[in-house]
Amino acid sequence: MTKILQRNLYREVADRIGELIEHGELSPGERISEKQLCDRFGVSRTPLREALKVLATEGLIELLPNRGARVVQLTFKKVKDTYDLMAALEGLSGELACEYISDAEISAIRKLHDTMLEHYRNRDLLPYFKVNRQIHESILAAANNDVLQETYSNLNQRVKRVRYSKKMTERYWSQAVKDHENMMAALEKRDGALLGQILRDHLCNKIEVATLAGVINPDYDKSIANG
């Protein structure tokens, strides 16, 4: 990985650490080695610690008093609660997008959709995820609501490693593609009520994927409850 030379150093460091968490290089519950990350990114401890503070506010890590930091272990309840809120925001974004979206924006999303289908047919999971994310981001942008987009982005950052897990059942993947086909049809008809409902329902199966990937563990909630 290349060293970081940008002006907003702590933000760039935070983004890089977030990528390590998202891609599974830093696992849930893992202690963070400041020395290793400083060596890896070619930065001092000051911007690294500022980055860790940022990631703590974003819910990706937790700071331990006098003991450094570790990657947050997502609980089943926390993920479900986050998804419930994100589903409501996605639904609203679909309704607003159908009200404001232009023909050119729909055409651009259609091209993304067709590219995503090609990745699905080839079973290219990571490129599929990348385009999938661009589709959702494009619908959010078309909603023309900055506060909605900012709030959604903050929530998505917390559970991104769940949404784009490398482990996914064939049944779930097939259903996700069908959902996107229905999304595209509703968007092209500018049927905001239908698109909003499809987007809300689209997150329902994410808990299954997260559990299979080991990113969340329902038993971890029980261990917390039992102390």
TrEMBL record:
Family annotation (Pfam families): FCD (PF07729), GntR (PF00392)
Species of provenance: Halomonas casei
Keywords: DNA-binding, Transcription, Transcription regulation
Domain HTH gntR-type: 7-74
Signal peptide: none
InterPro entries, per database record: GntR_C (IPR011711), TF_FadR/GntR_C (IPR008920), Tscrpt_reg_HTH_GntR (IPR000524), WH-like_DNA-bd_sf (IPR036388), WH_DNA-bd_sf (IPR036390)
Protein name: GntR family transcriptional regulator
